[in-house]
């Protein structure tokens, strides 16, 4: 049986041994003032046209007094806000950061959430993320499952009860009473988010079977107790879900976000109907304002045969449609360890999600959900001036997102050329200014005298 996390960790180990050195890292210029004439940009609904101005890292209404960079886009290129990745694990260790952080910038993904890091590992990464030429990352450092729960089978060399009890990365809870007893230690792990794991919660008969050890999760009562404790302390909860029953259990617990659209995987080779969401569940998610992270790109990692894959894809399409019809907030997340949100963008496009909606989710809704106290995903005055310059309209051709021509983060030019980053704040050649006219020849002495004569007469 193939499990997603096991595959990802295997890929991680192989990458450590075989991945070539990463390319030259991105450098960030000083914050620049920009004048973008004849620009086109995506505002979440359509392509708008006009002039854009940037000063002190934000968009402003008027042209700055001093402009470092002038560009006349001539109505050809299109600006979009950077993408966001709501579910991954590849930036929550120092090694992972070294391997994948530059790929995030390269693919135009400036915002990310890492959903199961341990406090010590994340402490090493946070200084790396706190630099201008780095993706902005939200870390979850309290990841909770049952003593026989997911992802223990993937992270332990030998998935046994003794090994599970000895590890420190994941918190193990089996009852509401244990949740209350360990809450102080859970709080000490820090962070504003808690991740709880629900996996086949409707199948209690699987417990005690050796082949399923480390692949299950919390029972619904324990999930609800942990969510109540988290909310009482001002923390939010993201719930891992596998089946439609897990989805409903997460809603009953009061989770703020559900990670995984049911049907992203079928690790028990069950009937696809077990992953189909009901209209009642979708309506409840909308009523409770519970967001759902899609992660449909992760399905490709399981290498399913054509028939089972097609069946899961149909369930995914139906679930997406039902959630959208109910008004549930969707967030873009891939859970692809060797990738970024761009993989999820392509997957959802293949599933037929409306292109305009897809771009809005990736560039507006998801960044704002990850960093709710910042003005992201917009081009109005006061919004953070972070954007990608594309060669054409991504609504007409999504492949344009794969080829950013320019990356700007809070007014800073991101480039792999250190000398360009260092010199960007100096006066530079503009694509917006008309050619300068040749200077007029100096007048001769006689001509000067003739030109002055009328003015003298006028003074009389």
UniProtKB/TrEMBL annotation:
Record-linked SUPFAM superfamilies: Metallo-dependent hydrolases
InterPro entries xrefs: Amidohydro-rel (IPR006680), Metal-dep_hydrolase_composite (IPR011059), Metal_Hydrolase (IPR032466), Metallo-dep_Hydrolase (IPR051781)
Endpoints of the signal sequence: 1-17
Keyword Phosphoprotein: no
Annotated segments matching region Disordered: 421-460
Composition skew (Low complexity), residue ranges: 421-432
Name of the protein this chain belongs to: Amidohydrolase-related domain-containing protein
Species: Pelomonas aquatica
């Amino acid at each position: 049986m193939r499990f997603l996390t096991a595959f990802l960790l295997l890929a991680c180990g192989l990458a450590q041994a075989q991945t070539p050195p990463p390319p030259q890292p991105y450098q960030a210029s000083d914050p620049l003032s920009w004048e973008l004439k004849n620009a086109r940009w995506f505002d979440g609904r359509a392509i708008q046209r006009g002039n854009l101005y940037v000063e002190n890292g934000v968009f402003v209404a008027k042209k700055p007094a001093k402009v470092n960079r002038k560009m006349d886009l001539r109505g050809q290129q299109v600006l979009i806000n950077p993408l966001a990745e709501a579910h991954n694990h590849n930036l929550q260790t120092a090694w992972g950061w070294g391997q994948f952080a530059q790929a995030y910038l390269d693919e135009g993904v400036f915002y990310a959430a890492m959903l199961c890091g341990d406090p010590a590992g994340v402490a090493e990464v946070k200084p790396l993320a706190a630099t201008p030429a780095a993706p902005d990352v939200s870390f979850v450092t309290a990841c909770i499952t049952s003593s026989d729960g997911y992802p223990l089978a993937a992270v332990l060399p030998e998935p046994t009860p003794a090994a599970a009890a000895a590890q420190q990365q994941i918190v193990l809870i089996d009852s509401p009473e244990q949740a209350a007893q360990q809450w102080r230690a859970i709080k000490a792990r820090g962070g504003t988010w808690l991740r709880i794991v629900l996996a086949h919660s409707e199948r209690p008969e699987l417990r005690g079977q050796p082949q399923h050890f480390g692949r299950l999760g919390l029972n619904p009562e324990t999930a609800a107790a942990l969510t109540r404790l988290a909310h009482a302390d001002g923390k939010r909860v993201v719930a891992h879900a596998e089946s439609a029953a897990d989805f409903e259990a997460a809603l009953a617990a009061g989770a703020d976000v559900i990670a995984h659209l049911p049907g992203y995987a079928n690790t028990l080779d069950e009937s696809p109907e077990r992953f189909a969401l009901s209209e009642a569940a979708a309506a409840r998610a909308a009523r409770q304002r519970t967001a759902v992270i899609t992660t449909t790109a992760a399905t490709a990692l399981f290498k399913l045969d054509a028939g089972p894959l097609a069946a899961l894809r149909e369930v995914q399409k139906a679930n997406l449609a039902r959630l959208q019809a109910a008004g549930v907030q969707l967030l873009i997340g891939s859970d692809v360890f060797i990738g970024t949100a761009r993989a999820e963008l392509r997957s959802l496009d293949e599933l037929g999600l409306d292109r305009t909606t897809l771009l809005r989710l990736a560039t507006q809704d998801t960044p704002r959900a990850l960093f709710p106290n910042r003005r992201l995903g917009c081009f109005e005055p006061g919004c953070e001036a972070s954007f990608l310059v594309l060669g054409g309209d991504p609504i007409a051709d999504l492949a344009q997102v794969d080829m950013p021509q320019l990356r700007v983060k809070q007014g800073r030019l991101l480039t792999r050329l250190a000398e360009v980053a260092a010199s960007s704040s100096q006066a530079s050649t503009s694509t917006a200014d008309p050619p300068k006219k040749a200077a007029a020849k100096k007048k001769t002495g006689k001509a000067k005298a003739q030109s002055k004569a009328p003015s003298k007469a006028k003074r009389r």
